[in-house]
Structure formats: structure tokens, C-alpha cells
Design a protein that fits this description.
Blueprint (H helix, E strand, L loop, with lengths): L4 E9 L4 H12 L4 E7 L4 E7 L5 H9 L8 E3 L11 H21 L6 E2 L2 E2 L1 H13 L4 H15 L5 H28 L4 H23 L14 H10 L7 H8 L6 H13 L2 H24 L10 H26 L10
Antiparallel strand pairs: 1-3, 1-4, 2-3, 5-6
């Protein structure tokens, strides 16, 4: 290290999941005066090495916060005490209950299949896709879209890259989901294996729901994620100025560290079918499409809303309900417990 290179550790406010870790490292790593950056979800911190001249720690923290503010993060030298907004539950609980009752009513009328015995239905996949697109887990996908858009906007090309990105994403989710489903058929999953996969999916969704509540921070350590190096390659790809870049970035989002995506990928393995696996991931991707498309052409972000706390708690409760339904139904299928829900 030269005499001008310094190392600092800062606290990060606004971190929720491994997608946040990737976003912070990618944004700060792009700064010309930064030579090393390492973020830690467990203690909400970031270590940086770079040339900061004669700036004070407070000035450096403000400088590092600039590229992160649009993503909902801030850097500080002091650890901010987390306070749970319990009042949000007064609105979140009735909204979540109303949501579930509404869709169960639709299922009773045969309009939509949301819950089935031991399975994640297409209706569930679509709703989970909507929740995922608004959650902090998909922040990294939004970052990819914005980064890619900025690269091509310099050449005055705004529409074509967006169309290629979303087309590549939706098509690749169907094909790759189908491949995962086909892999499940090759291994000929028996009832016990299918039950274990269903139970794992339910537990993963339960953890995701608890994390969305932003109340129990210990649950963040339990959330599974894709290996970071894969996600880093995907993020780096968005900065390439090539005709096919938007298409490739859309495909790469299948491998990003979003727990919701991974829970759906696990389920497609249990389908043992190219068509069922592909359709599950396709419908999940279609659920994420409206919000991601809105992000492509605007600065939309639920995190910036004053009602973000109510939304995330509502979404968390809905996901927890889905998880509980699937766990209980999976246990009923193998005879561990008698059937409880008969929707």
C-alpha cells in the first residue's frame, strides 16, 4: 500500500439481505479511488481501502453514501440502533388477512388456484413474483437494470435494451426452469424426496417472510443465497457496451441472490417436468415484470415510500402464510398430520 492508501470500516444502514451486500460492493467498487471493498451482512458494515486524501471519516462516509442513496443505503461512522415500527403491524395484519381471504375465495369459486396439497401452484408463483419484485431481495436486479440503462443511454438507445432485457429474462426463466424440472425427472424423485424438497421450500419462504418483517434480525443469517462470485459476474456484465448485453443480463438474473427466485427453483426440481418447471419459473418472472419494467423507465422504489414499512410487513405476513400452508399440506401428504386445510 502507498502512503495515500487508507483502510476504513463503516456502518451501513438499510441492509436486508445478500443482494444488499452485492449492491454495496459493486457500487463502491466502481469508484476510482477505491481499491478494495468488503461488505458484511451480519454486522451491517463495510470495509474499504482507497485514496481519500486528507478527508475526515465523516467526509468519507458522506462521499461513500452518495452512490448508495438511490438504492436505500447510507454509510456512517456510528452504528444506528435498529428500531422496529410495531405500529405498522396494525395496518399490515388486517391487509394481509384480507389478501389471503380474498384469494381463498377466488380459489373456492375456481377462478384461481393459489394453494394445493403439497404443491406451489402457478397462482402462488405469480403472487410470490410480485412480492419478490417489490422486496429488497430484487434490489440487485433493479440495480442491474439501471446500470445497463445508463450504459446504453449515453448512445441515445433507451428502448431497445429494455425490451431485450425483459424478453431475455422471461424466456430464460422458462427454459432454465424447464431444465431444472427435467433434472428432477432424471433423478426420479420419490415421495420422501419430494416431501423433503417441499418442506425445504416452505422453510425458505418462512425465513424470507420473517426477514421482510424487519423485526427478527437473526433470521437474515439463515437466508440462503447464490454464491457471490456468480452474482458479481452478472453485475459486471451489465456495464459492457455490446449489442447482446441486455439479453445476457436478462438471462443472468436467473442466478442472482434472491431467496424468492431460489425457492421457486427448488420447487421446479420437484416437478420432474420440463413443462411444469418452465411454466412455474415463467409465471414467477411474469409476476416480477410490471415492477421491474416500471423501474426500467423511472426511479420507482418501494423503499423510498413513507409506507414502505407497512408494505414489507404485509408482504412478509403473506409469504409466511404461504409457507405455513405449504408446510402443513406437505406434512399431511405423507401422513405425518391429518389434513387441516381443505381449500
Amino acid at each position: 500500500m502507498t502512503n495515500q492508501t487508507q483502510k476504513y470500516s463503516f456502518h451501513v444502514h438499510g441492509m436486508h439481505c445478500n443482494a444488499c451486500v452485492l449492491m454495496i460492493e459493486s457500487e463502491l467498487g466502481d469508484l476510482s479511488n477505491i481499491t478494495y471493498v468488503k461488505s458484511n451482512l451480519n454486522n451491517h458494515s463495510v470495509d474499504v481501502i482507497g485514496d481519500f486524501g486528507n478527508k475526515t471519516q465523516e467526509q468519507i462516509a458522506q462521499e461513500l453514501s452518495m452512490p448508495l442513496k438511490s438504492h436505500g443505503y447510507t454509510i456512517s461512522i456510528e452504528k444506528q440502533k435498529h428500531t422496529t415500527k410495531w405500529n405498522d403491524f396494525k395496518f399490515a395484519v388486517p391487509i394481509a388477512l384480507g389478501f389471503i381471504v380474498f384469494f381463498i375465495a377466488l380459489q373456492k369459486m375456481g377462478i384461481i388456484s393459489l394453494i394445493s396439497t403439497g404443491n406451489v401452484t402457478y397462482g402462488t408463483a405469480f403472487i410470490v413474483g410480485i412480492i419478490a419484485s417489490l422486496s429488497t431481495c430484487m434490489a440487485v436486479v433493479g440495480g442491474l437494470v439501471l446500470s445497463m440503462s445508463a450504459t446504453f443511454a449515453k448512445q441515445g438507445d433507451n428502448i431497445r435494451p429494455q425490451i431485450m432485457f425483459h424478453t431475455g429474462r422471461i424466456i430464460s426463466f422458462f427454459i432454465l426452469g424447464g431444465i431444472i424440472g427435467s433434472i428432477g425427472s432424471v433423478f426420479t424423485l420419490n415421495t420422501t424426496t419430494t416431501f423433503i424438497l417441499g418442506l425445504v421450500i416452505g422453510i425458505v419462504m418462512l425465513i424470507l417472510g420473517i426477514n421482510l418483517l424487519d423485526t427478527f434480525h437473526w433470521a437474515k443469517k439463515l437466508q440462503p443465497s447464490m454464491p457471490k462470485f456468480i452474482a458479481k459476474y452478472a453485475h459486471g456484465m451489465s456495464k459492457l457496451n455490446h449489442t447482446l448485453t441486455p439479453l445476457l443480463v436478462g438471462i443472468a438474473t436467473f442466478f442472482l441472490p434472491c431467496g424468492f427466485t431460489q425457492s421457486m427453483q427448488l420447487y421446479t426440481l420437484s416437478t420432474g417436468s420440463f413443462l411444469n418447471g418452465g411454466l412455474t419459473m415463467l409465471i414467477f418472472a411474469l409476476g416480477t415484470f410490471p415492477v421491474l419494467a416500471l423501474m426500467s423507465f423511472s426511479s420507482f422504489s418501494i423503499q423510498k415510500s413513507s409506507k414502505a414499512g407497512i408494505f414489507f410487513k404485509t408482504a412478509g405476513l403473506v409469504v409466511i402464510m404461504f409457507a405455513v400452508f405449504n408446510i402443513i399440506n406437505s406434512l399431511a401428504v405423507v401422513g405425518v398430520i391429518p389434513p387441516i386445510f381443505n381449500f
